[in-house]
Amino acid sequence: MALFIFVTPALTVNAQKEQKEIKDLKWKSVSTGMPKAWYGSDESKAVAESVLLYQRNSGGWPKSPPMHAPMTDEIRAKLMREKNNATGSTFDNSITTSQMIFLAKMYNNSPDPRYRDAFVKALDYIFKAQYSNGGWPQYYPLRKDYSRYITFNDNAMFKIMDLLHDIVNHEPIYNFISSDELINRSRIAFNKGIQCYLKTQYIIDGKPTIWCAQHDEKTLAPAGARSYELPSLSGGESEGIIEQLMEIPNPSAEVIIAVKSAVKWLEGHKIEGLRVENFINSHGEGDRCAVKDDKAPTLWGRFYDLETQQVFMCDFDGKKIKSMNDLGWDRRHGYNWYAPGPQKVLDKYPGWIKSLKNN
């Protein structure tokens, strides 16, 4: 495929993708964002061979270099040796779920039974990885570190739930999942996930608030992860949970209370007049700072203190800091401390309330 260096702004997203070599795209674009007709092309089939090779016998996929990168004999031999490796398969950063969506798209345009079988194997992996309380860890089989916690961080559980929701609701892309048993198991897993959301919503002074990025898999209490990721309320990670609760048809009173409470909390914890600015610092490095801007879009903090409900940040030492400008360069530049996403929830909320009154 030819590589064009210059892309005019008027080109559509798909046209821009088509003018780049596949190896230069991000996996997210390749797995779920290519033009529909591309899935089933010779180029996509070559990528699919790599995806099949990377899948562990457990059914999940490990973190790896981009799966659409050129495959060498050395990498191929290494992957074959690691097929039976029980560790490393994960849901982090859309891993496993993005491979499943890719395979579903492939099977729809090129019904190779290996794509279907790999998808079903991964679906079974999702069922096995789910805790009895409805949550999912970041890695399965389980590790001894924080990855054992129920993981909302980076939308890990949200992506699983979204996929299960689409299978249960017979989205056309998943019509090849015709087994009543698999659809029923998907429904059970999804409903258990909803119950997990309801059980993990953090209560302060008897009032439900939002969620943490991780919750202990046994106690369901907010839990920390890396040194700068303390137990806290998370504006960004709560967004997807609230959206999924709002999509439930004929929601129960418990779901309605959960959504109303979470939205009320988000309304009360907006950050106005603040903008994150990217710049090049005196060392020639990419950098960020928070600046005052009355016209800036509404933001929410990534972390809120569990007691004061105030925004905080952390450096590698785990000490709470009020301003990202006081962080060291690495955590200031290399981590997203603010989230604009919850605004989508607030925008959808009036329509959701109206739908309740109409039912």
Provide the residue-averaged pLDDT: 93
Q: What is the N-to-C succession of helices and strands?
A: HHHHHHEHHEEEEHHEEEEEHEH
Q: Give the assembly state of these chains.
A: single chain
Given as residue ranges, the uncertain stretches (5+ residues, pLDDT < 50) are 1-18
Helix content: 40-55%
Q: What is the radius of gyration?
A: 22 Å
CATH class of the largest domain: Mainly Alpha
Description:
The protein is mainly α. It has 2 domains: 183 residues, Glycosyltransferase; 145 residues, Glycosyltransferase, CATH 1.50.10.20. The chain is 41% helix and 9% strand. It has 12 helices and 11 strands. It has a 3-stranded antiparallel beta sheet, with no helix packed on it. The protein has a two-stranded antiparallel sheet with strand order 2-3. Helix 3 packs across helix 5. The longest helix has 21 residues. The protein is globular and about 55 Å long. The N terminus is likely disordered.
Please give a quick description of this structure.
Mean pLDDT is 93; it is low at 1-18.
Question: What's the layout of helices and strands?
Answer:
Layout: H1 13-18, H2 27-32, H3 42-54, H4 73-81, H5 97-109, H6 113-129, E1 150-151, H7 156-168, H8 180-200, E2 203-204, E3 207-208, E4 214-215, E5 222-223, H9 235-246, H10 253-268, E6 274-280, E7 286-292, E8 300-301, E9 313-314, E10 320-321, H11 329-333, E11 338-339, H12 342-358
Antiparallel strand pairs: 1-4, 2-3, 4-5, 6-7, 8-11, 9-10
Helix pairs in contact: 3-5, 5-6, 7-8, 9-10, 9-12
For this entry, give a set of tags:
3-stranded antiparallel sheet; mainly alpha; Glycosyltransferase; two-stranded antiparallel sheet; 359 residues
